[in-house]
Amino acid sequence: MRAIRAGESGEKVRDVQSRLIALGQTIDPSELEASHFGASTERAVRAFQQERSLLVDAIVGPATWEELVEASYSLGDRLLYLRAPNLRGDDVRALQERLDILGFDPGRADGIFGEQTDRAVRDFQRNVGLEPDGIVGATTLEALRRLRPPGAGPGRTAVREGETLRSRGSLAGRTIALDAGHGPGDPGARGPAGLTEAEAALTLVEEVADQVRASGATPVLLRNPQDDPTTEERVDRARRSGADALVSIHLNSHRDGSAEGASCYYFGRLGNVSVPGRALAEMVQDELTSRLGLQDGRTHPKAYPLLRETPMPAVQVEPCFITNPKEEAAIQEAPFRQEVGRAVTAALARFFEGRAD
User: 162: left (phi > 0), else alpha (psi -120 to 50), else beta?
Assistant: First the structure.
């Protein structure tokens, strides 16, 4: 879809506004009357993006539009079942949360009705004496509503993910999916000296791959210099690789050229997070800041597709700002790239060994 942004008017703007208002956002009546994307519509879009852990840019692109559509569904609005492409929405998330607290493991509450959610639905149906057909209609919803949660505490998914973090192992023998953000068709941000985010991310990923390989693990690159995969293709490649973890490298950017530092992101959305993803992000962030002395931009929950739609622990790493002249220059120096590679690899080793320190 074509992005919708401030200053535009028309039916598409009216549709966005009506969806935002239905979700509790406030828009100036004059903008509604004119179907105009003005200041109050921009504030409403930003508030929605912030709430849903999206990139907060006030632009209604594909990701924001899809979230607006997903947010319009409440549990019971439609039949839910496993299909391709997977059903997505807040109704699916509500179902996952309910199943989880009742002791049936649908995976993390990501709002995507995939195979694990299907298994949890069928397990629930069998346990309450219903036909285990995997279809969540009126009968299954009534059974869900009749059952009270066993009490306060973590759900099945959180317990399983916690146990995964405590299991010890080694980075050697693992498969690590590595994604270099952007690509030839979408170079991303550009530094003051002309280095693009796509170029920088690829050189950093290649260094991480070398370090991971030296540690006895197998790196799988989701794009190469000539390739320009879509987000969907990257998700598919990561899934098919059977990777034990995924690291996506991007570079941060800002209009203020003095902005600096490292940040890491993990899946988090509407109070639901990937526990292993958060742990890995914190370890990568710790290694980057302690080894390279980078400004600590902290870790943050985000619902980026590569974090949300992949089953393995996944993080997006932004080691510095490409728009900062000093950090852009550092990226082009081999010792800096090598140290980033060592930092990410050390964090992966800590993660699989179950070491928080």
Answer: alpha
- For residue 164, CA distances in Å to 132, 236, 248, 269 come to 29, 24, 21, 21
Q: What is the 3-state secondary structure (H, E, C) of 286-307?
A: HHHHHHHCCCEEEEEEECCHHH
Give the chain's radius of gyration (CA, Å): 22
Whose tokens are 């966005």? That residue is: 16
What pTM value is reported for the model?
A: 0.88
How many CB atoms lie under 10 A from the CB of residue 185? 9
> Residue 357, Cα to own-chain centre: how many angstroms?
25
- 108 touches 157 (CB < 8 A): yes
SS3 231: helix
User: What is the amino acid identity at position 64?
Assistant: T
pLDDT tens per residue, range 86-131: 999 999 999 999 999 999 999 989 999 999 999 999 999 999 999 9
Rounded-to-integer distance, Cα 169 and Cα 284, Å: 18
